[in-house]
């Protein structure tokens, strides 16, 4: 008779297991910014990892999971907004849930404010205020705060909820400036009094005061996102007395750097910098490379079929279904591109153009209503409401969260397409040899690290292997994480900081701890030291496309 070993578990251990404290092969990390990876103790390892970024109004930290071979304790993860358990969600499920939850909470909060008799708002933080020599002040991306009677001009860098939070129909603190796309989206969503908004022409000087001008530049972020260059002039408007750059959220590139340097003949007095990825290790390929490689991959898959492309010869139900439907479908593949409410559209555009097809958006969907506000962002006639004219669909990230959610979406289109391939654009999944941040205790060591990183172009391009290794032989649907980011990587920021001459840099993200603020300040000093050394040696600091 076989023997069985009996393991006794204490009641306290049972309670621990029931409460979600279990042994696992995953490691916990804390974050406190929506769409912003932040952690003062974050260690980026030389292996694939995924992160979830969620923020609530109170900046409460949550837990991040990272794959690891070590056995550690993992705590339950709850959505900080609705408090449901999202511990076992995939990265894109957590992101999609957080985005949806934040949108709903913002709308709910706005409705409550409309009926509230007394509204108490926090004091406007200094980081939201831009001040000029003559005493004039403006606000950038700060609408959810107490009114300042001295300020009547507000700027919205782009239409993401963590930047426009606080706006509603009755908001009347002053005039709101933004790009035409941002203004149109704002009016559509909040029905704000049109007399209180002003659309700024891109890449053109607009005078907002007698001696203060602003030039909006393309932030290379979501549609309509802008970098604001403010210039204060003397009474003759001939000499600049102060120059301030506010990046909002941006993905820096050589074109933007060159444009800023061509406008500013002298050093910027202040730069308000998007420091989302100002953590060594967050270096991912250039957008152009990601778009090019992914589009070529999609074309090859569309021609051969996903399983033939991967030489998947297994005799499965998938192959049988594919053969049975091959003669009655219009397309071999349907490509689903997950997006935010607004943002990540460039990936869908690139794939559609490579396939010589259109992008489908259902005319009945809420997404169509939003896209109609910035339809000019897309190439002419690229958007269609006829599903038969397209094999590329823009979908919410939540559609790609599970086999069941994809099943629901595919059911409506199964007579047109044989199989589904999904793309989840996110910069968080990419690693390379710089992924494990070294110990950099001194400024000299930081300078050496930056110089080496800026001179090494090996990892600027996406290797197709990164996509191919994600293929899962037994899965009904193939979903690929694509390292497409609309925020500047660490290398992008280092290049920006060493090529843009500024007297002072102010971080606008990752302000949750003094430790992180000090660390970012050290990087600012490092960039200034590199630039000063190059100028002293007479080295040409102009940017070329080769750096990207």
From TrEMBL:
One protein family per Pfam: DRMBL
Record has DNA repair as a keyword: yes
Record flagged with keyword NAD: no
InterPro entries according to UniProt: DRMBL, RibonucZ/Hydroxyglut_hydro
One biological process term in Gene Ontology: interstrand cross-link repair
Signal peptide: none
Major localisation: nucleus
DNA repair metallo-beta-lactamase domain ranges (all copies): 380-512
Family per similarity comment: Belongs to the DNA repair metallo-beta-lactamase (DRMBL) family.
Protein name: DNA repair metallo-beta-lactamase domain-containing protein
